[in-house]
Fold this protein.
Amino acid sequence: MYPEDLKYTSEHEWVRSPGGTDGAVRVGITHFAQDSLGDIVFVSLPEVGTQVQAGSPVGELESTKSVSDIYAPVTGTVVARNDALDSAPEAVNNDPYGEGWLFEVTPDDSSAVDGLLDAASYQAQL
């Protein structure tokens, strides 16, 4: 349920390194987060080129239950976003670690990812 090859944040995001873009990491939300939110009906993502700060809100997920912020797991520059979610936001629920990814960011400091939680640490805080 929580892939061992990913890093995690206490805000329920996952980080895959490397991402699909050279030098970037891919970001999404965890199974726990999508399950807690319920059916996701709208996704608001940061624009490519946006500078993001670790721990700061960068977008929103709207579900049938509530609206939840998406946080940047690392400081850096957004280099890709999953535009397929505009027409198919349910992918976040159906495949949170695959087709439901949110955006990619090139970290200012590549070692920042090392400081995130591993799968066991993330599960221990749930």
Remarks:
- The mean pLDDT is 97.
- The domain at 7-125 is CATH 2.40.50.100 (OB fold (Dihydrolipoamide Acetyltransferase, E2P)).
- The longest helix spans residues 31-37.
- DSSP finds three helices and nine strands in the chain.
